[in-house]
Each structure stands twice: as structure tokens, then as C-alpha cells.
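User: My instructor asked us to take a sequence, write out its structure as C-alpha cells, and then describe one feature of it. I'm not sure where to start. Here is the sequence I was given:
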Amino acid sequence: MVTNGNAGGSRGDMKITGSGSSNGGAFNQVKIMGDAVIHGNTDCETFKCLGNAEVKGSLYAGSASCNGAMKVTDAMKGGTVKVHGEMRVASEFAVGVVNVSGELGVGGRMSAEKVKIMGEMRVNADCQMEELQVKGTVEVNGMLNAERVDIKLYGPSRLRELVGGQITVKKSMGLPPLLGKFMPGSEGSLTAESIEGDIVVLENTKAAVVRGRNVTIGPGCRIGFVEYKDEFKQDSGASVSQSAKIGP
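Assistant: Let's start with the prediction itself. The C-alpha cells for your sequence are:
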């Protein structure tokens, strides 16, 4: 059943229960309980989905939550996003706070203030954010730029460039967060072309170049070249081909 309160040109509510579809538009609240397809660009204060939702167009939501699967075929912008399940955004993803337990896939660039991922994050272009926390895997086909990065590795991860203030990459201990996706015993590792930060702490990382003020290369790392300003530490279980201290 589809209930659409968007009458007389004013913002109303959209509610879809069971299986249904509706045209896009401007709404106060969009609520989906079941399977729904929305045709056209959609602007709303809140977007709530319990089930499966597809927006065939762009989506702006002051807050969005999904327990299930959600797909946006164009760009998505807004405030807070909370997902337990799977989210796919085909183009740009520009929001404030993101919290995902499951999978996040972005076809364009991504920008956010705070991002917390328990599972998998894949972005097909550059990422810009203040804070990133990942327990799982991350794949970025571009530059990931964040003031604070904390990655606990479950399974293989890949970045082109990682730039930040404080960067910590470590192999996780214990069971993975989502047993269906990351099986026990899977090797947590990160591969990157270059990593540059103020304070850099790495484990199980393969990179051509690492630059920082204070750099710690931990066990399982294979690094081509380390350039540091103040301090450089290397674990006995790490391989570093070359290192150099640069002047003030």
C-alpha cells in the first residue's frame, strides 16, 4: 500500500507498506516497510526503511536509516545515515555522520564528517572526511583523506593514497565483526601506493612510500621507503627497504 501525503504542493509524508512504488518529490517523512521503488529525485527530512528500497534518482535526507538493503541510482546527500545491512549509492555520497553495520558501496566520491564501518566500505573515487573508523575491509580507488583514521583489518583492504593527521592501521584480534562476510582465519592486510600523516602506526601493510613526523612500522609490514621527521620505529617482523630522516 502506498500513502502519499504530498498534496497541494505542500510537503507531506510517503508511506509504503508491503510491496509498492511511488514518484519522488519533496516530503517530510518517507517510511518504507517492505519492498519499494521510488521513481525520481527525492527530498525529505527523514527516510526510514525496514526492508528493501530503491530510489531511481537522487536522494536528499536530513536523516536516513535502513535495516535491510537500500540503493540510490544517483547522488545522495544529507545529514546522518545509519544502515544495518547494505547500502549502494551510484554517484556522489555527501553526508554528515555515517554508521554502517554491513556493506557500503559508493560509485562516486564520498565526503563526510564522521564515518564508522563495521563490515565493508568500497568507494570508487576520492574520500574526504574528518574521522574514519573501520572494523573490516576498505577499498578506495582514489585518495582517502581524513584527519583521524583507525582501521582494524579483517581480510584484504586496498587504497591508492592514504593522507591524514593520525593514522592507525592494525590487524584485528579475535573474531571478525560479520561472520558471514569475514570468516575466522582470514588474513587482515592493507595495500597502498602511499601513506602520509603526522603520526603513522602500521601493521600488516604493504606500501611503496610512507611519510610522517612520527612513523611506526609494525609486524607484517613491507614498505619500500620511509621518510620521517622526528621518530622512526621498525618492528623486527617488518621489512623496510630504505628510510630517511628529513630536516626541519
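For the description part of your assignment, you could build on this observation: The chain has a mean pLDDT of 92. Try explaining in your own words what that tells you about the chain.
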